[in-house]
Specification:
The protein is mostly helical and 385 residues long. Among the domains are: 76-174, Serine Threonine Protein Phosphatase 5, Tetratricopeptide repeat (Alpha Horseshoe); 239-318, no CATH class. Helices cover 49% and strands 0% of the residues. It is built from 16 helices and no strands. Helix 5 (142-155) runs antiparallel to helix 6 (158-172) and helix 6 packs antiparallel against helix 7.
Length: 385
Amino acid sequence: MGDRPSPRGQWGDRRPQGDRPTGDRPKWQDRKPQGDRPQRSGGPRSVGGSWQDRRPSGDRQGRPGADREDRRPPLPPGPEIPDWVDARELDPSVRGALRGLDPRNADRVAAHLVAAGTLVDEDPEAALAHARAARDRASRVAAVREAVGVAAYHAGDFAEAAREIRAYRRMSGDQGYRAVLADCERALGRADVALRLVAEALADNPDAGEALELRIVESGARLDLGEDAAARLVLESALGGRPDPSTLDATDAARVRLASAYADILQSQGEEELAAAWLTAVAAADPEDLTGAVDRLGIEFIDLEDGLEDDVDAAVEAEPQVEVESENGTSDHPGGPEIVEELPEDAHGLGASFDDEVEAEVAELLGEIDPPTDTPSDDTDDAQH
């Protein structure tokens, strides 16, 4: 089954524990340098002796933690932090858990966490790289281990996801992510362990959302063990006994994912028509297609803008080409020049054209021609005769 419990909503909403777990090693930065060293054997220290003759401090014995900074391996550089990352966007409660770090280190860890949280859906591999970089710099912060676990789960590294989420639960005391841990065990081929974890979590009376996630994992584990009938009964019971696709609640994301898993089981058992009905209901309740129901139905969407551009291009190609005669009298198109008949300017006996009248008036104003004299019209002469 492709559906897995969603860990989203827990990482960002959880408030990290303010106090670190006991057993943290003291920070060497806080240690004060030893002021008075014990005198050497053989008498008091010579005031006038040459400092070049003294042994280097690294050779002295009995100083706990000497040169710890020098012995510490350099941190891996990690991925480059994108320009769009703003460390101030990190949740204040998580930022508060970083106060024990060096300020510059805390800023870098915060930037990696913001990048990981932003990229976890669209590029989980890049998100995991940023989360690992944060862990390299702040491995004792519970929220950092949580970030690595969530990113690893999305990236498909289920062994690391299980390890980091267990570390987060141990450090923070938070008992969440039980469905995610069970699903990691299932993905690692340990379906029996997954079923045990599900049973333990269900016995603890989880909330409705977590219970549905646990049922999805239980159904998948039973499919892995070849218990197809039991897997179907688990989902049908969670959906209400006799589930009807028309009653699917679009506002319940966990139930929509449960219905998607149920459609997969129906399809694997050959009930194509009923599976299609459930997938259609899931697609209607999931407009962003987070469950992939649209793809499984084989529905393809066409971008309207692209379609309109194609129609315009086709219409332009279908238009008859207007042939324009060039200056040398040849046509720009092989069909020959278009013959345009000249229209008479005075087809209705209205006298000179408008352009001619304007030119005559301008010439008269400039004194280039004499003004016209009033001559009787032909009609007046005929009347006198």
